């Protein structure tokens, strides 16, 4: 196995224009059309990168003497780090997804924290919305008193009335916009949390049973910066924030003691 080096890559030392045209050709070959990229036979293609040269993996069918075989491999022809049958590549990815699953008790704890934070935000939003409503009502009452002062009591002249009316109408319009912006959207937060818990606890199964588009979405959610594959193993520089937060919850800080009955850690 090896990575691309100046000695191995024939493009090193070539004229600039030739390298540019070669680079364009390679890009086209690597990326192809949207139809070629999104082949349901190869959901990991262009998502997983070679751990040796960091280029996205490609994939294709190879025809043997008696059958056809699907392989994932590195796009870099001078790099022999990855060349693996699809069944093995995807089985290892499913195992990798399984390793990221948090313990259910920590997931429930995380859900409770989310719900508590959501309740606090709802309370704050309610206070803001009620204040905005009071402001709208007060302005409307002032407008009503202005109309009464001009129409019924004749306490102000028409010019003053019109100036004050225009000013109040503008303030009311702005206050109504603020009131609409502070309205609380209806959200079944418990259902959303339950759905998230199910997703995180069943990631391998969901990935296996999903369509190509759904698999690609799951991959991006769980691994925002993608994954690398080298020496028969996956690795990633960053997983979804949910796993990071759960790890923070499940790992006791120095000087702190874990709660009884809740031992920190993840399943092996």
Core attributes:
3-stranded mixed sheet; 3-stranded antiparallel sheet; 9 helices; 268 residues; elongated; disordered C terminus; 6 strands; mainly alpha
From the spread of the alpha carbons, the general shape counts as: elongated
Mean pLDDT across every amino acid position:
76
Low-confidence stretches: 4-36, 252-268
- N-to-C CA distance: 30 Å
Number of helices: 9
Strand content: 5-15%
How many extended strands? 6
Spatial arrangement of strands, main beta sheet: 1-5-6
Return the string of H and E elements: HHEEEEHHHHHHEEH
**How does the helix and strand content classify structurally?**
mainly alpha
Q: How would a textbook summarize the main sheet?
A: 3 strands, mixed
**Assembly form of the protein:** single chain
Gyration radius (Cα, Å) is 31 Å
* Percentage of residues in helical conformation: 40-55%
Notes on the protein architecture:
- The protein is mainly alpha-helical.
- The chain is about 55% helix and about 10% strand.
- The strands form two sheets. A three-stranded mixed sheet has the order 1-5-6, covered by helices on one side. It has a three-stranded antiparallel sheet with strand order 2-3-4.
- A hairpin with a 4-residue loop joins strand 2 (about 55-65) and strand 3.
